[in-house]
Amino acid sequence: MKTIQLLFILSIATTGLFSQGIEFVQDEWEIALEKAKTEGKIMFVDSYTTWCGPCKKLSKQVFPDEKVGEFFNANFVSIKLDMEKKEGRRFGSKYPVSAYPTMFFINGDGKVVHKIKGFRAAKDLLKEAEKALSKYDRSEEFVEDYESGKRDFDFMLNYVTELNKSKKESLKIANDYLRSKPDITKEQEVQFLFAAANEIDSGIFDQLQENKDLIVDMKGLEVYEDKVLEAGTNTVYKAIEYDYYDLVSEAIEKVGQNVSKDKANAFKYKSNASYCRDSGNFENYLDAMKEYGKKICKKDIKESKWAINSLLSSFKAEKENKKLAEDLAKNLLKLEKNFDNTVLYTKILIQNGKKEDAIKHLEKDMKDMKKKGEEVGPYEQILKRITQTR
């Protein structure tokens, strides 16, 4: 019981700090809305209060979830608003809230396309998010003109873009358009390929790859690599859905041909781990995560946090997961020593039945900080709560 109490205390301190969950922007909501419009996304708004229990539960259990983060970060611009503060009150004057939490999905024109009230578990929130995307589906606006034979470049570019945003099949339409040998410039052809190549296991992507130099000249290397990783990730999702590992292998191979070595290696280990996790293959998952930790996380803060979150949320009953998470959290402290990472490491030590080690670690950190004249108040509070449960 004491261990559970400690973990509850520490979970509050570490909520949202180490997971790769939803990335909430810190802008004013009008700026976030403009950003969503510019990026062709929907704005997701979590309207909450500090005293709302279900709001806290969402922030603690759901928003940090890895799968929730992956989906929301790809499709939405997300913002949290305390409805009792100035920014929240301004938002509430335009979008009234009668219960907490209330979550809004708002398109770039400021129209609410979907709204939900109350707590939702991760899988249920994902379903609601998919509903929001389906309601924002603009691809239907193009169907009649397409079927009547409209094929000018701007129309086709926008149609394929909207199909991909709505998670609808676009490859046949894109391929048919290119096979028709449209009267477009080379730059337009490349622009179309860039918009259409949403999966790496496709002929469209192969054509994109053939034009890499021109795309890099037009958009820059980083944008090109991000596109490759996005297409590769979509193919891995498809491999998981159809339980077909050959697609993972193809994605890893093509990503490796098109991005930097470090990015390619990170993609390889994460893809293998994700596939094994979702197929329930613990042994191969752990092997992939060990390699990922050794080859990537040793020197990368962001990747370390992703790995720790994955280990703590997958195959939770397995001791090997927790031990590897402990090792990675210890290394994370070497890369970036701060309060958040210290509390994370302390939490994992306690989960692994090493409360005395956690106390010693905190005491040592505090001693070092005092010598440097740094503030140790937050550490003292955590240490006090831990020692009181001895």
The CATH topology label of the domain at 18-135 is: Glutaredoxin
Instruction: Report the portion of residues in β strands.
Output: 5-15%
Number of strands: 4
Q: Sketch the major β-sheet.
A: 4 strands, mixed
Strand arrangement, largest sheet?
A: 2-1-3-4
CATH architecture of the domain at 18-135: 3-Layer(aba) Sandwich
Number of helices: 21
Low-confidence stretches: 1-19
Mean pLDDT rating: 88
SSE string: HHEHHEHEEHHHHHHHHHHHHHHHH
Q: Helix coverage percent of residues?
A: 55-70%
Cα Rg: 23 Å
Distance between the termini: 11 Å
Principal-axis shape equals globular
Q: What is the CATH C-level name of the domain at 18-135?
A: Alpha Beta
Assign the structural class, choosing from mainly alpha, mainly beta, alpha/beta, alpha+beta, or little secondary structure: alpha+beta
Annotated CATH homologous superfamily of the domain at 18-135: Glutaredoxin
Tell me what the structure shows.
With 390 residues, the chain is of the alpha+beta class. It has a domain at 18-135: Glutaredoxin (3-Layer(aba) Sandwich), CATH 3.40.30. Helices cover 68% and strands 6% of the residues. The protein has helices at 2-14, 29-39, 53-62, 66-75, 86-94, 122-135, 140-147, 153-165, 171-179, 186-196, 203-210, 212-219, 221-242, 245-258, 261-278, 282-297, 301-313, 319-335, 339-351, 355-371, 377-388; strands at residues 42-48, 76-82, 102-106, 112-117. Strands 2-1-3-4 form a four-stranded mixed β-sheet, with helices on both faces. A hairpin with a 5-residue loop joins strand 3 and strand 4. Residues 1-19 have low confidence and may be disordered.
